[in-house]
């Protein structure tokens, strides 16, 4: 978390988005102010106690594991419109929301997500990060295409 705090001091992101329960908990415990946390109250698919995060707004969404529903885009856009700390609570799995956050967040937003048993990754949103996220998204089959 020391390196993340240093990055925040140097880059001065306009917003911070945390994707995942462990990374959201670590940011909260280290007084790193996330604007949005995206969680599913699970770690490695095991239920955990909800993270203590002073959210003014909580948005709910269903998102099956291994997918990104169309509603995921809408909920991230809604969270980004909030002027206060916001929790996005996912019934299902939030892992792929990192791609949605990077593609939707304004320039100079820091998206932090966890890599199980490895640590955290911080991505500053900009043209290059969006391009890379889009490459991954383009390679994925849309949720509604899977049901056909």
Overview of the molecule:
The protein has 6 helices and 8 strands; from the N terminus they run αβαββββαβαββαα. 38% of the residues lie in helices and 27% in strands. The chain has one domain. It is an alpha/beta fold and 148 residues long. Strands 5-6-2-1-7-8 form a 6-stranded mixed beta sheet, sandwiched between helices. The protein has a two-stranded antiparallel sheet with strand order 3-4. α3 crosses α4 and α4 crosses α5. The chain is globular, with a radius of gyration of 14 Å. α2 links the parallel β1 and β2.
Using only CA atoms, what is the Rg? 14 Å
Q: Treating each run of at least 4 consecutive H or I residues as one helix, how many helices?
A: 6
**Largest sheet composition:** 6 strands, mixed
Mean pLDDT: 93
| Major beta sheet, strand line-up | 5-6-2-1-7-8
As residue ranges, the low-confidence spans are none
**Secondary-structure element sequence?**
HEHEEEEHEHEEHH
Helix coverage percent of residues?
25-40%
* Structural shape: globular
Q: Compute the number of strand runs.
A: 8
What is the count of structural domains? 1
Distance between the termini: 44 Å
Strand content: 25-35%
Structural class: alpha/beta
